Amino acid sequence: MPANLPPDYFSAEQRFREAKTPEEKIEALEEMLAVMPKHKGTDKLKAMLRERISKFREQARVRKGGAKQKTAYSIDREGAAQVPIIGPPNTGKSSLVRLITNASPEVADFPHSTHKPTPGMAPYENIQFQLIDTPPMTREYLEPALTDLIRRADMVVILVDLFSDPVEQLEETLDLLHGVRIFSQACAVPGDLKKPPAIRKMLVAANKMDRPEDREYLDIFLELSGTRLPSIGISTRTGQNIMAFIEMLFHLAEIIRVYTKRPGKEADKTTPFIISEGSTLDDLAGKIHNDFVNKLKYARIWGKSVRDGQMIQREYVLKDGDIVELAV
Ligand SMILES: Nc1nc2c(ncn2[C@@H]2O[C@H](COP(=O)(O)OP(=O)(O)O)[C@@H](O)[C@H]2O)c(=O)[nH]1
Ligand SMILES: [Mg+2]
């Protein structure tokens, strides 16, 4: 069992043991996965939990007695992270997904034009994020399948309209999430919840910042909302800050890209291993193959903060962009 598991993990594990239905088991397992620290030594445990989740999904399916219930809201994760774009109607969620992914959800100047989630892949250098366009969240109607999708995601973008009371829009969206026990990394979780909360990394993007002078409105929004979430002003119309937005996703995801090579060969820089920040050489080896950890004779590294070809130990903490030569 990896060290440093947080108390939330053990309370979810307790719930897992007490769960009676496959659905309850899945919920608890997903929470265990979500609260697990993103550093060394958790990869195997994560794989095991994912395996158990798919086992209980199968059980749930058999119990329901029918073909696999694939709804529009069960979207398989692809790429480095799954990121729903959520928020009130008309803030530009569909426009954003249209602009930076290969998907083309419908954009309209009236609210509620999006009825079902649409995933698309957004490239960042040599990796991709899976963004998901979603139907609006309002106090009048909150789709339970949407909140389930948010719970399964790696992180969440709350998109507000800089010119439609963004303070209220952000507050309303956060209230709705809190109502279904989904909290951000930046807020205090109430202690009196009947069921454990889900903590998701969140980012706030204020859209429609089309003109340079609109920057002032962004500052006012940030000041008035007092939000401690990472925030950025963007415009899907002009493309303002769109690259910076994708870069923020990369930093929030807390992942690094590492390339491997065999002695005497060149590294393939097009297909990185995507691993959690803080992962060690041992974690990387375990990810390549179970046996690899034992077979590994030595490893050398090329990177920004090391001497070229320097030998590294198993507990060496890898950095984004490192090239590792693995000798077996
Ligand atoms: N001025 C401006 N309008 C935008 C921008 N992004 C989207 N819109 C408009 O906002 C309206 C709603 O966009 P849509 O993407 O359908 O929003 P959704 O309901 O959140 O999916 C449409 O009329 C868009 O053309 C932007 O960056 N600037
Ligand atoms: Mg839409």
Structural features, described:
The chain has 328 residues and is α/β, with parallel strands linked by helices. The protein has three domains: 58 residues, no CATH class; 172 residues, 3-Layer(aba) Sandwich (Rossmann fold), CATH 3.40.50; 73 residues, Ubiquitin-like (UB roll). Helices cover 35% and strands 20% of the residues. The strands form two sheets. Strands 1, 2, 3, 4, 5, 6 and 7 form a seven-stranded mixed β-sheet that branches. A five-stranded mixed β-sheet has the order 9-8-12-10-11. The chain is globular, with a radius of gyration of 21 Å. Magnesium ion (MG) binds next to helix 4.
State the domain count: 3
For the sheet with most strands, the description reads: 7 strands, mixed
Overall number of strands: 12
Name of the CATH architecture of the largest domain: 3-Layer(aba) Sandwich
- What is the CATH class designation of the largest domain? Alpha Beta
Q: Order of SSEs, N→C?
A: HHHEHEEHEHEEHEHEEHHEEE
Uncertain spans, ≥5 residues at pLDDT below 50? none
Distinct ligands: guanosine-5'-diphosphate, magnesium ion
The average pLDDT value, as a whole number, equals: 91
